[in-house]
Amino acid sequence: MKPRNEVPANLKWKTEDIFASIADWEKMYADVSTRLDFSCYEGKLNTAESVKACFDALYDVMGDIELLSVYAHMLHDEDTRKSENNALQAKVQALAVRFSSGVAFMTPELTALDEKTLREFAENPLLKDYDYELKSIIKEKPHVLGKEAEAVLAMGGQVFGSFSNIFGMINNADLPFPEITINGKKVKVSHGMYGVLMQDPDRNVRKKTFKAFYNAFIGLINTISQTYISHVNKDIYFARVRKYESCLSKALESEDVNPKVYDNLIKSVHRGLKTMHKYVAVRKKIMGVNRLHMYDVYASLVDDADLKLDYEQAFELVKKGLAPLGEEYGKLLQDAHDNGWIDVEETEGKKSGAYSISVHRAPHPFVLLNWQPTTSNIFTLAHELGHAMHSYFSTKAQPESKSGYRIFVAEVASTVNEVLLLKYLLANTDDVKLKKYLLNYYMDMIKGTLFRQTMFAEFEALAHAQAESGQPLTKDLLNEMYIGLNRKYFGRSMYSDPEIAYEWARIPHFYRSFYVYKYATGITSAISIAERIYKEGAPAVADYFKFLSSGGSDSPVELLKLAGVDLTKKDAFDAAMNSFEDALNQFIELN
Ligand SMILES: [Zn+2]
Questions:
Q1: Phi, psi at residue 343, to the nearest 5°?
Q2: 189 Cα: distance to centroid of ligand 1 (angstroms)
Q3: pTM (2 decimals)?
Q4: CB atoms within 10 A of CB 102
Q5: C-alpha angle 222/226/230, rounded to 5°?
């Protein structure tokens, strides 16, 4: 691995586009430190003018803090070993805490205003940059309690959050990782190793891994069950205290998502299960086994078909793949390539993986990579550039208060790029091995992100609904629910090994209730958008750009409608299912 100073400048991101030097960073830091006192607005948020002044001041400080933060973050990730960069991060975190407590009075003070006044504010042109925020406060208003009750709830914060911490302790600290023997060598099955070993071509290794790993969880199942049940009961408590119809509606309404979307997702995926079952039957046939077990799910169906491109070649390929998005998009990609948006090479101490990062006041988004000449790295490049462009267009089109987009839509642009690239590659190769690899990559993505996350989402909904109806949850009930869903989703070609009933017990995401469904709606939206762009061209691209430019200016479900995706209806889900079936049929033909 190279040291950073040996990497050519054109393969490094330009942090100097944000601050020329750490000294400049320090200067802004000192300046922001003097602007954290918002008490002059407290108790005065009763006119449109004063509300605007307060919001303006808040966003002005927040914008600078984000800039300080992103710079510190990037320096840290360039070389995680440098303690002086960690110190910058710690400093800006402290600043952010002071900022939060300084503006903490705002939402309660606005919420306490009567609804008529709030509506007038939301419709006042003076406050147009803050109208969505004000409308959200109006929506939340019926769920906010009196001052004293809110204070009591706030005091319980640490206690209420503890179930997730307890599970974290079980999962990361106390779980005895089992040891198995492979070719005479002892191997510890940690979380990381589990994922690796479940892809091992040797079926016996996979079987041993699966059994040993699940037995470790089964050994702690009483504790884990009680932890999860308590977490669900906590959700119910909050839904009732805040006067929501259910835990599910609380989770979705607080993110301004129509609860219908959740139902629609589950129903639509149920309709698509026949294709999933067909996929499982194909897997069984290709693997040539009498009985397909749960430990066969992650074994690869194809040979590696790495294109072995260097970064420059890969970038050209990605540009070609994304050409359907038009000339402006292509030019911007070139700009990202030429002008220091991207940190390409793996260097000593650099943060692993890949991500895109962006804040409103930075001159452009940034992308971190650790380039390797594999096919999946080409997809990662397209993916991260998707995030970067979404941020770029939203920042350009929206005021600071509305440019940040929500998690609900965060994976749409990145996945659209992956799907477009995949379609391009498939259309432009005769190499059967590569085609199989690509189709398998796509099906794995849909299987993992659409089907599996929806199954998780359905499990959460069932568990909460059960407890909400007054019937107590038990570990046996949770296990039965889970294995029932497993059978339903995988179909008859799959043998649901008894251990799989306990899978729910090892999923950390379940302690963030009603979160994972967003992965499924995200990929559904992206596939539906990419398919439409492929078929309709320009009009679909124009609609997609409206979405890319919409940031967080409205409910995420409304914003997706700009790109022609209505998640309250079935079309987008059907498009995604058809795309899966299409890929499967092509895959069958090649085998
Ligand atoms: Zn992503």
A1: -100, 110
A2: 28
A3: 0.94
A4: 18
A5: 175
Neighbours of 147 (CB within 10 A): 10
Length of the chain, in residues: 591
Question: Does residue 432 contact residue 397 with C-beta atoms inside 8 Å?
Answer: no
Low-confidence ranges of the chain (pLDDT < 50): none
Query: How many whole angstroms separate alpha carbon 158 and alpha carbon 151?
Result: 13
End-to-end CA distance of the chain: 39
For the chain, give the longest Cα–Cα distance: 76
Its sign, for the CA torsion 36, 39, 41, 46, is positive
List, for residues 253-276, the tens digit of each pLDDT value.
Answer: 999 999 999 999 999 999 999 999
Contact 3, 347 (CB under 8 A): yes
Helix (H) and strand (E) counts for the chain?
26, 5
Give the closest residue to 231 by CA, choosing from 168, 316, 138.
168
CA–CA distance, 197 with 496 (Å, rounded to integer): 19
Residues that are catalytic = 384
pLDDT of residue 308: 87
Cα 63 to ligand 1 centroid, rounded to whole Å: 23
Per DSSP, the residues of 433-471 read HHHHHHHHHHHHHHIIIIIHHHHHHHHHHHHHHHHHTTP
- Listed in sequence order, the residues at least 6 apart from 496 whose beta carbon sits closer than 8 Å to its beta carbon are 294, 483, 486, 487, 490
Which residues 6+ apart lie within 8 Å of 569 measured at CB? 264
- 79 residue type, one letter: D
Q: What pLDDT is stored for residue 85 in this prediction?
A: 86
For ligand 1, the distance from its centroid to the CA atom of residue 389, given in whole angstroms, is 12
Cα(300) to centroid(ligand 1), Å: 23
C-alpha distance from residue 329 to each of 68, 233, 319, 334, 389 (Å): 28, 48, 9, 9, 8
Q: What are phi and psi of 365, to 5 degrees?
A: -70, 170
| C-alpha to C-alpha distance for 311 and 348, rounded to whole angstroms | 19
Two tokens, residue 349: 């101490």
Answer whether 514's CB lies under 8 Å from 247's CB: yes
| Contact assessment for residue 449 and residue 576, using Cβ atoms and an 8 Å cutoff | no
Tell me, in angstroms, the distance from the centre of ligand 1 to residue 363's CA. Answer: 21
Cα–Cα dist 413/387, whole Å: 6
**Do 417 and 400 meet the contact criterion of CB atoms below 8 Å apart?**
no
| Burial class for 23, CB neighbours closer than 10 Å (0-12, 13-18, 19+) | exposed
| Rounded Cα distance, 520 and 529, in Å | 14
The reported pLDDT for the residue numbered 84 is 87
Task: Say how many Å lie between the CA of residue 520 and the centre of ligand 1.
Answer: 13
Distance 383 CA to ligand 1 centre (A): 6
Q: According to the model, what pLDDT value does residue 157 have?
A: 81
- The edge-to-edge listing of strands for the beta sheet with 355-357 is 342-343, 366-368, 355-357
